[in-house]
Amino acid sequence: MIRNNAATSWIGYMNYLKQQTIDPEQLTVDGLEGIMEVNSYFHAAFSHSVPWLYLLDYTTGRYLMVSKTMKLITGYESDYWQQGGLNLTLERYQKDHLKLFNEEIFPDRLEILKKIPPAEHPNYVFSYNFQLKSRSGQPVTLLQRNCFVKSDESGNPLLSFGVVTNVNNYTNENPVIHLVEKVTEGALLGIGEAVEKKTYYIQKENGLFSKRQKELLLYMADGLTSKEIADKLFISEHTVINHRRNMMEKCNVRNAIELVAYAIRHRII
Fold it and tell me: Where would I find the HTH luxR-type domain in this sequence (predicted)?
């Protein structure tokens, strides 16, 4: 795995790989052509929901495969996107979303991959929502699920195979949810066991706690139960539970004890 901190951003990482000598054998993947053919077959019947598929070579920044269905999502022909490669992707990425993925999400992915044997990388699916500018210039909210089908012996990911779906009608740009799942071997991009989930915010102020949530935290720190806090604040116990769950997502902790510890450590209370 790379050791240079400057190379751990998404863009820095691929620039790093371009300077390395990669064995072509490491970049061969069997079976993906069949998946692309199935995608084209269902295009006519399910044009409203068929995802856009791609295979991205991290060593060159080129798309080795792009399904024709991407035109339904972005307005661009697949050949145009394939020729434009990573530079076109960077150009069409919503600025704030690119900054978040480049500087926070992708480095987190590298840290996760460090803990996984390279041979098992294809068995982990990474999902997150982001925004891309369509050909018309309008932002489109997308859900991307990808796995690293090829990595080198040091665990550096080389090839990313992904599925991108339009989720404009299901979610907005904030927050960005990054989910990592372990799937059964051979079930490419299937649904598996969640091993890590983290919430990010495009606008950092959206990650802060409200005045009411800070009040709730103070009572939690005093050891009050959800029912007791509800009585103190004249709200329902269900509302207290929802506030607690939302705060846990905002600071990526697993339970109430970690939440209070986080609030104290960051001088929120």
Answer: 202-267
Cα 215 to Cα 233: distance, rounded to the nearest angstrom: 8
Residue 201, number of CB atoms within 10 A of its CB = 15
Q: What is the pLDDT of residues 214-268, one digit of tens each?
A: 899 999 999 999 999 999 999 999 999 999 999 998 888 899 999 999 888 877 8
- Give the Cα separation of 217 and 24 in Å (integer): 55
| Burial readout 16-36 (b: 16 or more C-beta within 10 A, e: otherwise) | bbeeeebeeeebeeeebeebb
Query: Which two tokens mark 75?
Result: 């307005």
Q: Does 223 lie in the same domain as 189?
A: no
Shared domain check, 194 and 230: no
Retrieve residue 61's tokens: 């920044």
What is the secondary structure of 137-151 as a DSSP string? S-EEEEEEEEEEEEE
Residue written as tokens 């661009």? Answer: 76
Rounded distance, CA 15 to CA 40, Å?
32
Residues 244, 165 share a domain: no
Range list of β-strands (E), 93-134 = 124-133
Domain that holds residue 130: 5-204
- Residue that finishes a domain, picked among 156, 185, 204: 204
Asked whether 39 and 67 are in contact (CB, 8 A), the reply is yes
Give the C-alpha separation, 147 to 268, whole Å: 37
Instruction: Report residue 186 as tokens.
Output: 């051979």
Instruction: Express each pLDDT in 177-215 by its tens digit.
Output: 999 999 876 555 556 789 999 988 886 656 678 889 989
